[in-house]
Design goal:
This protein has a domain of 148 residues: Alpha Horseshoe (Leucine-rich Repeat Variant). The N terminus is likely disordered. Helix 6 packs parallel to helix 8. The chain has 33 helices and 2 strands. The protein is flat. 65% of the residues lie in helices and 1% in strands. It is an all-alpha fold. The longest helix has 17 residues. A two-stranded antiparallel ribbon has the order 1-2.
C-alpha cells in the first residue's frame, strides 16, 4: 500500500527512539541488533505460509477452531460469523465430527456459527448434539443455534428433546428454541407447562413463562388472553405488555386497576402499570399521578414524559419534579428540561460550579452536569475555568470526564492541548487518552499530533490504541501500515502494530503480511510473518 508523504514524515520526524528505556543507536548495526531482540531469528524452521483462496480459508478457520489457541479460536469464529458463505462447510464439519476429533469448545463454537450464518436447511447438522450423551454446555449451544434456524416443523422433535433434558440450562434453551420456532404444537406445549407452573409453583417450570412471552406464533395473543385471569399482578402486566407489542390497544381500563396502592402494595407492579399506560399514550392518566410520592413510580413517570411523543403539557409536570427533595428525581427531570432547551434551569448549578472543587455543592453540580445531554456550549467555558483551581488529580479527572461528555469541539480542543502538554500529570494524560479516544473520530487529529511530537513505546501504545477505534479513517490506516513496514521506527512499536493489525483489518492483514514477507530482509521479521499467517489464516 502506498504511504503518503505526510505519514512518512511522521515516521521519520524523530530519529532517536527509546526502547524499553534504552536509547536506540543511530547506526544501522545497532538498529538491527534491537530489531533482532524484538524479532529473534527462529531456532527451528518456521513453515512458509501457503496462500489459499477464500474457500480454502474457511477450511483453515475451521481447523483453527479445533486446534488453535484461545486467541486463534476466537479470531476464526469471528471470521466465520462474518461470512454467510461458510454455512455449508460448517454444517458439513458438524456432520463429520468423530469422537477422536470432538472437543467441547469446537462443537460449541461451530454450533454458534451455524446458528448465526445458517438457515433451516442446516438445522439437521445441529440436531444430533441435543442428545443427552453430550455435556449440558454442548446441548445448550445446539438449542441456542436451533432457536435461530430450526424450521417450524421441528416442533415435535424439540418437545421430545425437552422431555429428555434434566439440566436447567439446556432445558431453558430448548424451550426458547421451541418458542422461536413458532409451531402450533410448540405454543400449546409451552402454554401447558405454564399452566402446570401456575398450579404447582414448581421452580423448574418458571422458564416456560419467559419462553411463552417470546413465542413467535400469531396465536400467542389469544393464549395470553385466556391465561389472564390466572396470572398474578406482575405476570398479568407482563402479559399486557406483550399484547400491546402485538397491536392490542383497548386494554387501558384493565391495566389502570393495578395503580391502586391499597390493593397492590408493590411499587414495582404499579410502576410497570404506569409504563404500560404510557405505551398506550394515556397521558392524562399518567400526568394525573404526578407527583406519586413514590420514587420508583415518579421515575417511571419522568421517563415517559421524556419521550418524543409526550404532550407539550409534560413540561409543567417536569417542572414540579425539578423542585422535589429527591436528588434522583431532580437530576432526571432536570436532564429532560435541558434536553427540551430549558437551559435556564441550569443557572443555579452553574453558580455552584464556579466554586469547584471547594464546596460540596460544586461537586454535586459537576456530577449532575456530567450525566446530562444537550448542555449549552457555555457550560464548557465554566468547566475549563475551574482547571487551574484543581490541585487534586481526582478533581481534574472529574473535569476531563465532564468535558468529553459535552461533545463540543471546544472541549475536545482543550483536552487535546492537555494531551500534548508535557507538564500535564501522567495520570491525567492517560485518562484523557482513554476518554478522548472514545469520543469520536474528531479526536484523531490530536493523537496524530501526539505521535508526531513523541514516539516512545509508551506513547505509541496510547496513540495507537486510540486511533484503532477509527480504522475506516484513511489517515489512521495509512499511519498503521507505515509503522508496520518501517525500518526505522522503534521495533517494539512496530511489533505492537503488527500484532494489532489483524484485529483492526482482519481481511487486509492476510494480504499485507503475504506481500511484506516477500520484501523483508530480516529473518526474524520474516519468521514472524509466516508464524502469524499460519496461526491465524
Amino acid at each position: 500500500m502506498k504511504v503518503t508523504f505526510y505519514f512518512k514524515s511522521l515516521l521519520y520526524a524523530v530519529t532517536v527512539f527509546p526502547l524499553l528505556g534504552c536509547s536506540q543507536p543511530d547506526d544501522g548495526v545497532g538498529y538491527e541488533a534491537s530489531l533482532s531482540d524484538v524479532f529473534p531469528a527462529p531456532t527451528k524452521v518456521v513453515p512458509t505460509y501457503v496462500e489459499v483462496d477464500d474457500i480454502q480459508l474457511i477450511e483453515r478457520y475451521i481447523g483453527h477452531i479445533h486446534v488453535g489457541t484461545k486467541d486463534h479460536h476466537r479470531f476464526a469464529v469471528q471470521r466465520l460469523l462474518e461470512n454467510k458463505g461458510s454455512a455449508d462447510r460448517v454444517a458439513a464439519e458438524l456432520r463429520d465430527l468423530t469422537t477422536d476429533r470432538f472437543t467441547i469448545g469446537a462443537v460449541v463454537s461451530l454450533c454458534q456459527v451455524l446458528g448465526d450464518v445458517g438457515n433451516a436447511k442446516h438445522a439437521s447438522a445441529i440436531l444430533p448434539f441435543v442428545s443427552t450423551i453430550f455435556p449440558p454446555i454442548v446441548r445448550t449451544a445446539a438449542f441456542q443455534a436451533l432457536a435461530n434456524i430450526a424450521p417450524a416443523d421441528y416442533g415435535d422433535l424439540l418437545i421430545t428433546a425437552f422431555t429428555e433434558q434434566k439440566d436447567s440450562s439446556p432445558r431453558n434453551a430448548c424451550l426458547n428454541a421451541l418458542s422461536q420456532g413458532g409451531s402450533e404444537e410448540g405454543l400449546d406445549f409451552i402454554a401447558k407447562l405454564v399452566e402446570e407452573w401456575l398450579d404447582q409453583g414448581e421452580t423448574a417450570l418458571q422458564s416456560s413463562w419467559n419462553a411463552l412471552l417470546l413465542n413467535s406464533n400469531p396465536r400467542l395473543q389469544q393464549v395470553l388472553t385466556e391465561l389472564q385471569p390466572r396470572l398474578s399482578p406482575f405476570l398479568a402486566l407482563q402479559s399486557f405488555g406483550v399484547r400491546i407489542s402485538l397491536g392490542e390497544r383497548d386494554i387501558h381500563d384493565q391495566i389502570k386497576v393495578y395503580l391502586d396502592a391499597d390493593k397492590y402494595k408493590s411499587s414495582g407492579t404499579r410502576s410497570l402499570a404506569v409504563q404500560l399506560l404510557g405505551e398506550l399514550q394515556q397521558w392524562d392518566l399518567v400526568m394525573g399521578l404526578a407527583p406519586a410520592n413514590n420514587e420508583k413510580l415518579d421515575l417511571a413517570i419522568i421517563g415517559l414524559l421524556s419521550r418524543d411523543d409526550a404532550p407539550g403539557s409534560a413540561v409543567q409536570i417536569l417542572d414540579i419534579y425539578t423542585q422535589q427533595e429527591s436528588q434522583t428525581l431532580q437530576r432526571k427531570s432536570l436532564m429532560q428540561m435541558v434536553k427540551l432547551g430549558k437551559t435556564s434551569y441550569l443557572d443555579s448549578y452553574l453558580l455552584e460550579l464556579n466554586e469547584y472543587p471547594h464546596t460540596s455543592g460544586s461537586l454535586l453540580a459537576l456530577s449532575l452536569l456530567t450525566d446530562m445531554q444537550g448542555l449549552p456550549e457555555h457550560v464548557v467555558d465554566v468547566i475549563i475555568r475551574r482547571w487551574p483551581y484543581c490541585d487534586d488529580v481526582n478533581h481534574r479527572l472529574s473535569l476531563v470526564r465532564a468535558l468529553v461528555r459535552t461533545g463540543y469541539p471546544s472541549a475536545t480542543d482543550f483536552l487535546g492541548e492537555k494531551l500534548l502538554n508535557n507538564n500535564t500529570d501522567p495520570m491525567v494524560t492517560k485518562f484523557i487518552s482513554e476518554v478522548l479516544g472514545n469520543s469520536g473520530p474528531e479526536s484523531t487529529q490530536w493523537f496524530l499530533k501526539l505521535w508526531a511530537q513523541q514516539q516512545d513505546f509508551a506513547t505509541a501504545r496510547m496513540v495507537l490504541l486510540a486511533l484503532t477505534r477509527y480504522p475506516h479513517m484513511t489517515e489512521v490506516q495509512e499511519l498503521l501500515v507505515a509503522i508496520a513496514q518501517s525500518s526505522t521506527v522503534d521495533p517494539m512499536t512496530r511489533r505492537f502494530v503488527l500484532e494489532l493489525l489483524h484485529k483492526v483489518y482482519p481481511a487486509q492483514t492476510r494480504l499485507w503480511f503475504s506481500e511484506w514477507r516477500k520484501e523483508e530482509s530480516h529473518s526474524g521479521v520474516r519468521a514472524f510473518y509466516n508464524r502469524f499467517l499460519n496461526d491465524y489464516y
